[in-house]
Amino acid sequence: MIRKLHTLALLTGLYCAGAALAPAVASERPFVLGGHALQEDDDERVWEASTRLEGRGGFKALDVELEYAFEPNLSVEFGWARRLGDEARESELEVGVRRVWRDPARHGLGVAFSLEVEVEAERETEPGERGGWRYGATTLSMPLSWQWERAGLWTHLTLGAQHERDEGTRPLAVLGLQQPITRQLEAFGEWGAVREREGVLHAGVRWWLKREKLALDLSVLRRRDGAERPESLLLGLSVFDLSF
Q: What is the domain count for the chain?
């Protein structure tokens, strides 16, 4: 019981410390755009909680995500994001369902399907002015995962489509890599494109403070939006196997 209270206190502290910050694209941690088809056999009726801070000059962002696993291959995700820009502040809510159809540990190639729906609320810079909630985007994707056993390298390929309110439907393709360095440390990276002139390049390290229970992520993200290529520093914390 005391351990659970300590975990909740840690998550609450991170939330309060970043309440003015934010980011986001739906993803599977530690990635920001892509996903994976991995599953843990003991993930049944447990929660995963994660939070991530993003800083880039005058732009700051925070997102918080909760995932509940009904069983090892079926989970539902809830996300909240807040970002502060030069012209407006925006909040986003997201709900998603993820199903793993083939476990890569058993079949070599893992296959999963993910459906995510996002709504957003925009507030103008004038105090007291708020816009209502409105549909933001829907993303349907199929992550594929396999491991190069000799090197221990995990490769994740995410293919799908994203429909945005003002942009229409566009293809999504993301390549992600995870490479264990030591038992407590692993490197990861991803390259993704939503369309020809938009994408991300993301790389960092995950430090397991407690193996399979508590992880800290530190990474650098470069977004490509037309001719602009701004860079951000990301700090994330994930807690696994929470049961109440």
A: 1
Chain mean position to CA 59? 19
pLDDT tens for each residue of the chain, 244 residues long: 444 434 434 434 433 333 333 333 335 889 999 999 998 877 788 999 999 999 876 668 899 999 999 999 999 999 999 887 655 568 899 999 999 999 998 899 999 999 999 999 866 555 555 568 899 999 999 999 999 988 899 999 999 999 998 888 999 999 999 999 999 999 999 999 876 667 899 999 999 999 989 999 999 999 887 656 678 999 999 999 998 7
| Of 25, 92, 21, the residue nearest 58 (C-alpha) | 21
CATH value at residue 194: 2.40.160.40
- Look at the block and give the residue holding tokens 């910050």: 21
Domain that holds residue 180: 2-242
